[in-house]
Design a protein that fits this description.
This protein is mainly alpha-helical and about 300 residues long. It has helices at about 15-40, 50-55, 60-65, 95-105, 105-120, 130-135, 155-165, 170-175, 195-200, 205-210, 210-215, 225-240, 260-295, and strands at about 10-15, 70-75, 85-90, 90-95. The two termini are about 20 Å apart.
């Protein structure tokens, strides 16, 4: 006999268990959200800590909200407490996985294909963060994106580093911020259409983007996984800016001087560590998607 296997029964969480998980998630993300919201109220800006809230579209309230993921039954819960994608079950509340998958079928398929393609490639670690340098190439201090913070080198010396090291950026969403004179210097010319073919697991921005793919898959994936991806992205952003041409020492970020051999070795070692951690998260996202498929009725 063939046919489609029956859906998996949802894992069940008693009220005390899911409420504890929800509270732990809220407490964890508050350590990231509260300082950002305090700065926002006063008009302050932080080039490292605020980036994930300004570059990505997930709002603080969305990050704070807890979802159990697909195939989880919450006992003694009210569907109205969790939103439109949840439905009542005789034993409690569970995510309406079919509804979410039907509404987001194209997006889910696109994300899954990108995650799988990236996971199937070797990590390349020879870019040395030159993408950030290409974003300020041939710009004055007033023209650069974070112009409240000085550059470590003069514009001419910054440009010389870019020309000497070369640029090997495979990530479209980094490449699109290159200055016009820097674009022809890149070994590749990535586009949205070639993203699945070019994205590779050593890229800092590809690994930072795991946060984006996680929240775009929410509520099919648990909020703890979204937060894990955020935590990695936050640490990657720190390296990204320490290795950039900006001087953020006054904020407590000593530079990784990728214009030197010692700095490049430091950068590559950190990049390798991030790639290893990102591989685990990428696999967890793929597993969560497979579980959501199995949980669908």
């Amino acid at each position: 006999m063939g046919g489609v296997p029956p859906p998996l029964p949802p894992a069940a969480l008693d009220a005390a268990d899911w409420q504890a998980r929800r509270a732990a998630h809220a407490a964890r993300v508050a350590t990231w959200l509260d300082p950002h919201l305090a700065r926002r109220r006063t008009g302050g800006r932080h080039p490292v800590e605020d980036f994930l809230f300004t570059y990505y579209s997930y709002r603080p309230a969305q990050l704070r909200r807890w979802h159990p993921g697909a195939g989880v039954l919450l006992r003694d819960a009210d569907p109205a407490e969790f939103g439109r994608d949840y439905r009542a079950d005789p034993a409690g509340v569970t995510l309406d996985t079919d509804r979410v998958r039907a509404r987001r079928a194209d997006s889910i398929g696109w994300i899954r294909a990108l995650l799988a393609a990236t996971a199937g490639r070797p990590a390349h670690l020879g870019c040395f963060g030159m993408h950030e340098w290409a974003m300020v190439y041939r710009q004055t201090q007033d023209e650069v994106r974070h112009n409240a913070w000085p550059l470590r080198l003069s514009p001419d010396d910054t440009a010389a580093v870019v020309r000497e090291r070369g640029v090997r950026c495979s990530h479209f969403d980094a490449f699109r911020f290159f200055t016009a004179p820097a674009r022809p210097l890149n070994l590749l010319q990535p586009s949205r259409e070639t993203q699945h073919a070019l994205e590779q697991p050593g890229c800092l921005h590809a690994n930072m983007d795991l946060y984006k793919w996680a929240y775009k898959l929410s509520p099919l994936v648990a909020s703890e996984l979204v937060a894990d991806c955020f935590a990695l992205a936050r640490q990657i952003r720190t390296l990204d800016m320490r290795a950039s041409p900006y001087d953020l020492a006054a904020l407590g970020y000593p530079p990784v001087r990728v214009e030197t051999a010692e700095g490049r070795a430091e950068y590559a070692a950190a990049q390798r560590g991030f790639a290893e951690r990102a591989a685990v998260l990428r696999a967890r996202l793929l597993t969560a998607l497979d579980h959501a498929t199995a949980a669908a009725g």
